[in-house]
Design goal:
single chain; alpha+beta; 3-stranded antiparallel β-sheet
């Protein structure tokens, strides 16, 4: 069937979120949190026409046998939605498969936060963080300086040296001073190695080939070509199969028990295997 209300529900999106945007939000909810809540908009004969994505953070409680409603709230708004009017897609928590779902975002929380804070730390280096670049203090035989002298010395230093056009100018003193410079060696802190390690852990957990994310340190033409096959087989197909199973069991019976939903596999032909087979058996 090329036209059907079920296809409109899956592909059409909503007036505020077109189909592509709606499916992207749904997949992000599933991957990050492990749950997707689609509020069913019904038309004539109570047939679902569209699914409105509802952020999992809005859902305060899920239905029980004694209270078959979803309790949702956002800011000052709250509501109770009947269980039949929500399609709940979830990645079951192994610790409690009958409770709320759990996604990759929870499993990778430490890696994601470590990478985020590493980036913020590098950013903060462009601010002084209440820490000067260096300290100047009296030293030697005349190692005394009253507050008035210190203030005049500070103002004179700033007036003569501060600003881009005053760079590289010398400053002459009539006494010995000590200078303590705070070290800011990013290489010693190994931020790049840390962020690379967190990045690798994230895409390896998701099963995404590094070539799909632009990580080309160990890539070549063969690995780049093979990344499409690996990505489709290990990342896309499991997600497509999960959505297919939920739609088949939880959505299509509302239209017709005889309907069967399927998808076109994104797995491309293995050209290298086809070439080797043709070389081994040309007929």
């Amino acid at each position: 069937l090329e036209t059907h209300p079920a296809l409109d529900f899956i592909q059409g999106g909503t007036p505020l979120l077109p189909g592509v945007s709606s499916r992207r939000v749904q997949q992000l909810h599933f991957d990050l949190v492990g749950e997707v809540f689609l509020v069913k908009e019904r038309g004539r004969f109570k047939v679902p026409l569209a699914g409105w994505p509802m952020p999992p953070t809005w859902v305060q409680s899920t239905p029980t046998s004694a209270f078959p409603y979803y309790v949702v709230g956002y800011r000052g708004w709250s509501a109770q939605i009947p269980e039949a009017d929500v399609l709940w897609v979830r990645d079951a928590d192994p610790l409690n498969p009958y409770a709320r779902g759990v996604g990759y975002g929870k499993a990778l929380a430490d890696e994601l936060e470590a990478d985020e804070y590493a980036a913020k730390t590098v950013r903060q280096l462009f601010f002084n963080r209440a820490q000067p670049d260096f300290l100047v203090f009296p030293k030697g035989e005349r190692a005394t300086m009253n507050p008035g002298e210190t203030r005049r010395f500070e103002l004179d230093w700033i007036n003569r040296l501060q600003g881009y056009w005053k760079a590289w100018k010398p400053y002459f003193l009539n006494r010995e001073v000590g200078i303590y410079e705070f070290a800011k060696d990013l290489r010693a802190m190994q931020f790049q190695e840390l962020r690379d390690s967190m990045r690798d852990a994230i895409y390896q957990t998701l099963g995404i080939p590094p070539e799909k994310l632009g990580v080309l340190e160990n890539a070549n033409r063969s690995t780049i070509d093979a990344s499409d096959l690996i990505f489709a087989k290990n990342v896309l197909v499991p997600r497509l199969e999960l959505w297919r199973s939920y739609y088949q069991e939880c959505l299509l019976p509302e239209y017709d028990d005889k309907l069967i939903i399927d998808y076109v596999t994104p797995i491309t032909e293995d050209r290298e295997f086809t070439l080797k087979a043709a070389q081994a058996a040309a007929w």
